[in-house]
Here is the input.
Amino acid sequence: MLRFLTSGESHGQALVAILDGFPSGLPINIDLVNKELAKRQQGYGRGSRQKIEHDKAEILSGIRYGVTTGAPIALLIQNRDWHNWQNVMSVYKSNDNKEALAEIAKKSIKRFRPGHADLAGTLKYRHSDIRNVLERASARETAARTAVGSLCNQLLQYFNIEILNHVISIGNIKTDKSYEQISLNELSSKIDMSEMFSADESITRAMKDAVKTAWQDGDSLGGIIEILVDNLPVGLGSYTQWDEKLDGQLAQALMSIQAIKAVEIGDGITNASLPGSEVHDALYPSNDNHLPFSRKTNHAGGIEGGMTNGARLKIKAYMKPIPTIRKGLPSLTYPDFTSETAHYERSDVCAVPAASIVCKAMISFVLARAFLNKFAGDSIVDITNSYQEYTKYCQSLGKAKSKASVAKEQNATLEMELE
Here is the structure.
């Protein structure tokens, strides 16, 4: 079972991740991991913290000479800003250091931020300083997830599975273009040219203007992210148990990302208001050797019955505006619960482009886990053999059907001749 854990605080020494259950024998390109980490720090609307951090992952174990060994993979990402927070975030007791105690007191948090984990987390763990919640609940944690997701993506790429993330809206600025028939390579080149990670170049400027206005108003903005995946085999996930349904796993993974509040697979929202005849994707004979069937539509977004169905996987994640906003909202102090303006700490105005990288990472992890569950093996050789056998089976169905059709036509012709 593929799984991972992360640890670390926003202003602590480092972020740590351990990825367990990864097969042996897969070549790993650490530059690709660091490229994804760099992308996570980009996008118009990011805060000043990104000028301090230059995230790079250090692999501590599980890889030897650039190839996975099958052992747990440990990753470390240093926080450069730790230098400025050593007293406040020290693991050790400050004793009687007056300067350190004064700094700790100055940076303790006593005002809740509505929309953040502050209130529930502080009460749940009985903290005296809200900072204990802020530090771990911070989206800084997603840097570790991004590194893990990049490793998983490299596993999927080994089997020609392509994943792409892009932003389709910021605030009320939204593209009206459909990307169903466009290749992911073509989309990727468009996205790389946009500061908002949008494939629609015509709205990038409007998105940036909306973010700039929000910054001037001391506010924040959310948006919608879309993840597209091509070349997935049929049958990842399962219909047999609730927790094995792939759409449920994908939704949970995305909803675990800070500020993601809704998930849509395919045309799920629109489908709810339409009759079934306009929603379900009809089946037709196939004209290629890949699969024995084809479809003209993909309203289901690549998943039926909790399993991949061979079509492009389409998922949207809806991100709320970041709750740390400069102008502040009415709130309460802690622990006396008197009226006050919410605490403000250096933050982004809009992190939707960055969140799209995290969404891609989490989707990569879930798909890699589902892939390994179906094509089980301890090494990449075993997994490849299993995958190739299944691929041949799927292709043989189409060929068998073709042979049967030919035989039927031959028999019909013979009968006509005999008559």
